Amino acid sequence: MYAFTLGLLLVTVPGVLSATYDVAVGAGGNLAFDPQYVTAYPGDVVNFVFHPKNHTATQSSFNQPCVPLAEGFNSGFIPVATENDSLPNYHFHVMDTNPVWVFCQQTGHCGKGMVFAVNPPADPSPNSLKAFQELAIATNGTGSSSSAAGTYTTPPAPEWQTATATVTGASGSVWTTTYTSYDGTPSPTPAAEPIDHKIIVGGDGKLEYSPANISAAIGDTVTFEFRPKNHTVTQSSFLNPCKALASTSTTGQVGFKSGL
């Protein structure tokens, strides 16, 4: 059996490293998420940290702020007796840059303004976080919000800047990345340790790779294991799938090739 290993190299692109945003749920006895919104990108994580009492982080729609969204995420009720060093949490993985609306499903909490959003439009948009919160209060509450919610003002859009950061992984590897960010954004966090993805080439006499596709991160490796008969692993372009990249590239790209 012959194996060919391909390493996925680090390149300088925006958003190479994901960010984790901690959001306190009901901290200090307040019926509020703190902060009340985050601006996040695909691959980022929103970490809801639950404080004493019994709250949820439940996805809804803008038009029905206090009604669980079908197939949306829901932490379920998470009762917490006292403040401690190991407060329970719930992770939401950001898939795109569309707005995500969230509320606490505990009776009466949403109607008092206990809502949250990922990537909400800024005021004066009719779909701003302020409008979402006001709709929650108007349709499901007593007409008064908690003090924490009542003092909220949607800030202006952030000013984007180019930033460079160096991150050290658990294995001691050091990565430097340049990305677009804004003031107040958490520093990049180390990515997970590299994974080796094994691909079988021509297994059981079939003319195929197994699996046929994977999702890999920077630093991962792909090991192609060749089974009986004579095959190659050759990089191509999308428009010329059956020709080596080196023979079709107009920018000098060579691409990898295992050879026969």
TrEMBL record:
Residues 1-18 form the signal peptide. InterPro entries: Cupredoxin (IPR008972), Ser-rich/MCO-related (IPR052953). SUPFAM superfamilies: Cupredoxins. Keywords: Signal. PANTHER family: CUPREDOXIN (PTHR34883:SF4), SERINE-RICH PROTEIN, PUTATIVE-RELATED-RELATED (PTHR34883). This is Cupredoxin. It comes from Sphagnurus paluster.
